[in-house]
Design a protein that fits this description.
Mean pLDDT: 87
Protein name: Cyclin CCL1
Family: Belongs to the cyclin family. Cyclin C subfamily.
Shape: globular
Helix content: 55-70%
GO molecular function, one term: cyclin-dependent protein serine/threonine kinase regulator activity
InterPro entries: Cyclin-like_dom, Cyclin-like_sf, Cyclin/Ssn8, Cyclin_C_2
Keywords: Cyclin
Strand content: under 5%
Largest sheet: none
């Protein structure tokens, strides 16, 4: 039977959406560069050949796009809370948005529209089927068509990988394991449980933790932020003894334990950059507005003119597909099968010639016997 680690390595989250920090930064730089090239060409076509490159706007850098993506991630989470969506739906929608904008630029497709699509599609991915009309009514000046316009685009952007592995269930299992130890006080475990869950609901989603670490590593890092001693107790317990109670070779286990703790520590440092308190104490405050507002103005000037309106883009693609539809050729007449049209003069003449030939010739059964 495959182990939990082997099953995770077969998942799309590991195969398609796990990157080293260097690889993720490279992908974002490539996406930013391609977006600049494509938007430059479209802007020059719109303005005419007489306009030079001096008339082009200043484009966002990859770092600025990452900062804006974090802002729109927080906006999505606020919208999910406003809509009363469950934690798993909120987390899945957030992961969809962040996955999409790894290979797509915020300058190419509008994040404000796609985050609504992510929320609606994330609900369906988690088995929560809400009525589209009721969902659209929760957002001002938003139609049903606007929510659905980016749905197939989103599916392409996430490479049709709709299975998202979250660390919430792993945390519940870890807490159950800790409660089995009689020397651990229940209030301490309960407090760590609440705090770790708050970290998972915000810090792991706003950062790139899902791209760099497994759900169990994210869970242990969040638990370590909540109570380092409890996290170390769990890790240490996993390496103390083998299943039959015999002490295994300490050297390999010691090396592996140190490697695991090092990974958890690096994830812990990443989560610590965005503690849950920043949702209220930083994002949406004057301090964050001073940072984000200039980037939003810059984004407004350098958007892709052909893809800023998802509804119009969807309609144009449908019309293009209809025009390119290959029409099947009409089936030929009887002549294509029988050599001439049935009931025509040509057909009658052929049959008459055959009849005369048989009448003028010998008996069809040949000469008489003997």
């Amino acid at each position: 039977m495959a182990t939990e680690d082997e099953r995770y390595r077969q998942s799309t989250q590991y195969r398609l959406w796990s990157f080293s920090p260097a690889k993720l930064a490279e992908l974002r730089e490539t996406t930013n560069s391609l977006a600049k090239t494509h938007i430059t060409g479209r802007l020059l076509e719109t303005k005419g050949p007489d306009q030079g490159t001096d008339s082009l706007p200043e484009f966002l850098t990859a770092a600025e796009e990452t900062q804006l993506l974090k802002f729109f991630t927080v906006e999505l989470m606020r919208a999910a809370i406003f809509c009363g969506l469950p934690t798993e739906v909120r987390a899945t929608a957030t992961v969809f948005l962040r996955r999409f904008f790894i290979t797509n630029s915020v300058m190419t497709y509008p994040p404000t529209e796609l985050l609504k699509t992510c929320l609606f599609f994330g609900s369906k991915a988690e088995g929560l089927y809400a009525r589209l009309a009721k969902f659209a009514d929760k957002f001002p000046n938003t139609s049903e068509e606007e929510i659905l316009a980016g749905e197939f685009l989103l599916c392409q952007g996430v490479r049709f990988a709709f299975d998202v592995r979250h660390p919430f269930r792993a945390l519940e299992g870890a807490i159950l394991e800790l409660r089995r130890h009689p020397d651990l006080e229940k209030p301490r475990v309960d407090a760590a449980h609440v705090r770790a869950r708050e970290i998972l609901k915000f810090s792991s989603l706003v950062t790139d933790a899902y791209f760099h670490y497994t759900p169990s590593q994210i869970m242990l890092a969040a638990l370590s932020l909540a109570d380092r001693g409890l996290a170390e107790r769990l890790v240490q317990g996993a390496f103390e003894a083998s299943r039959n109670g015999e002490q295994a070779d300490p050297t390999p286990k010691s090396d592996l334990r140190d490697k695991v703790m090092g990974t958890i520590e690096s994830c812990r440092e990443l989560l610590a950059t965005e503690p849950p308190e920043r949702l209220e104490e930083y994002w949406g405050t004057l301090e964050s507005t001073k940072l984000i507002k200039p980037l939003l103005r810059k984004l407004k000037k350098c958007r892709d003119p052909d893809r800023a309106d998802l509804v119009a883009l969807q309609r144009a693609r449908r019309e293009m597909a209809a025009q390119k539809e290959i029409r099947q050729p009409k089936a030929g007449g009887d002549a294509s099968v029988f050599g001439s049209e049935i009931g025509t003069a040509g057909g009658n003449d052929a049959r008459e010639a055959k009849r005369r030939k048989m009448a003028e010739g010998d008996d069809v059964f040949g000469p008489a016997l003997g």
